[in-house]
Amino acid sequence: MSMPELISTAATMQEGALRHIFVRDQMAEWSKQPLIMAKADGVLYWDVNGKRYLDGISGIYTVSVGHNNRRVIDAIKAQYDILHFSPPMHGTNPVAIQLANLIAQIAPGDLSTVKFESAGSEVTEAAIKLARQYHRLRGNAGKYKIISRYQSWHGSTMGSLAASGLKSRKTVNEPLPAGFIKVFPPTCYRCPFGKDSQNCGTVCATIVDSVIEMEDPATVAAIMVEPIGHTGGIIDPPEIYLKLLREYCDKHDILLIFDEIITGVGRTGQMFAAQTFGVTPDVICTGKGLSGGYTPLSAMICKQSIADQFWGPIDKNPGFVEGHTFEGNPISCAVGIAVLREILEQDLLANCRQQGARLKAGFERIAEKTGIVGDIRGKGLFLGMEFVSDKKTKAQFPATPGIGVRIGRRALENGLLCRFDPHWIAFGPALNVTAEQIDEMLAVLEKSIDEVLAS
Q1: Are the C-beta atoms of residues 71 and 334 closer than 8 Å to each other?
Q2: Does 35-68+347-454 match 72-345 in CATH topology?
Q3: What is the pLDDT of residues 267-300, one digit of tens each?
Q4: What's the Cα-to-Cα distance from 247 to each of 74, 241, 281, 437, 441, rounded to whole Å?
């Protein structure tokens, strides 16, 4: 068989070439104006036509230390010369152990044992399995249910998808695995219980305790939440919310799992959102920014007391039954070490807080000028704004296509990548973004909003 020829970069724009790949958008619609990136540097992308874009969302909250970061690239090259793959069924490698020890030093509390995977879906799935196996090893096999939230997104595998609360992504894949219970998220701006800040009573949290009681605590294994929810429009919880969940988990012998795939590795201004909110869970799942987007890498981090349950005689204790081909890959782990060193040595956590404050001030200025921003939410460099047609009543614009989508698409035309939904947009630039780059992103956003309102 002769060697097939690769098509040219320019030819990748042609519909015939696009027929051979799935992307996350509806294919027929996306192929009308396909976005195909060819090059990146710092916080900038260039597509195959040479158009420049500001990366206001770190790819997808992933490029934590910027594109073309030489420290990370050098670490990749050096590791390739030593070991690029180790046999996961037989053990691990020095680089994975070094990264695990580094994570143990920077993780909150006594979260100190790590399971490496390749993607966020894999580690949230692993956390679900960990919770169930942990209780089984302690003689509580009946504790299997996972309580999570509507408007959440925990991943694409069947278990992580079952824990997610987005009908648009779940329905097409149903029926999903059993044992997953949903509660409403702490959407304070649009409280599902009709409360306001004066008469709240934090019912969004207290109702979780009621659900545990109604389900029977003897059947509940874990509560899984994103400290700041993403897909519902950057859902920033009340200060006491996560602390109450911690109390309920302690009371009922339930594991508290934080899905920090997005919020971990500096995104909120601390290494983990658990530290930002002052609440230590039993398990943290993180990914995305951990590798800076240079390789697939994610990590499930659990307390030592949980990990200890998986040690024991093999005839009674099979260990943690979970594994994937690329877990602990030495190239990925070398990248993880380089990314964490870059964040720590360059003090990018402080830069995140500083530039996050600048970004939020810019959002507030735009809100004051346009009069269509009802709420600004988030922490650090993970911020969003919700659009309303009437600030007093919180009335929304029509959902189709939605003003957030119109603004986001106009921003893309104007050379800015951000996250957009019908009623909101979000920013999450690299942790090493500069003040000048923040200002340029805000200028493009403001221009895009003005153009949409004018039309």
Answers
A1: no
A2: no
A3: 999 999 999 999 999 999 999 999 999 999 999 9
A4: 45, 10, 11, 41, 41
229 touches 261 (CB < 8 A): no
Contact 128, 148 (CB under 8 A): no
Q: Which helix (H) or strand (E) segment is 44 a member of?
A: strand 44-47
Q: Are 328 and 290 in contact (CB under 8 A)?
A: no
Q: Is 7 helix (H, G, I), strand (E, B) or coil?
A: coil
How wide is the angle at C-alpha 405 spanned by C-alphas 399 and 28, nearest 5°?
Answer: 100
The DSSP string of 101-151 is: HHHHHHSSTTEEEEEEESSHHHHHHHHHHHHHHHHHHTT-TT--EEEEETT
**What order do you get walking across the sheet with 298-303 strand by strand?**
111-117, 298-303, 283-286, 255-260, 220-225, 145-149, 180-183
User: Parallel, antiparallel, or unpaired for β 145-149 and 111-117?
Assistant: unpaired
Residues in the chain: 455
Taking the complete model, does pTM exceed 0.85, yes or no? yes
CATH 3.40.640.10 fits 72-345, yes or no: yes
Residue 420 CA to residue 424 CA, distance in Å, equals 6
Cβ proximity of 55 and 445 under 8 Å: no
| CA separation, residue 181 to residues 213, 215, 219 (Å) | 13, 9, 11
- pLDDT digit string (tens) for 397-436? 998 889 999 999 999 999 999 999 999 999 999 999 999 9
Coil, strand, or helix at residue 386? strand
Superfamily designation of domain 35-68+347-454: Aspartate Aminotransferase, domain 1 (3.90.1150.10)
For 99, phi then psi, to 5°, come to -65, -40
For tokens 């930002």, name the residue.
276
Domain ranges of the chain: 35-68+347-454, 72-345
Please give the backbone phi and psi of residue 138, each rounded to the nearest 5 degrees, phi first.
Answer: -95, 10
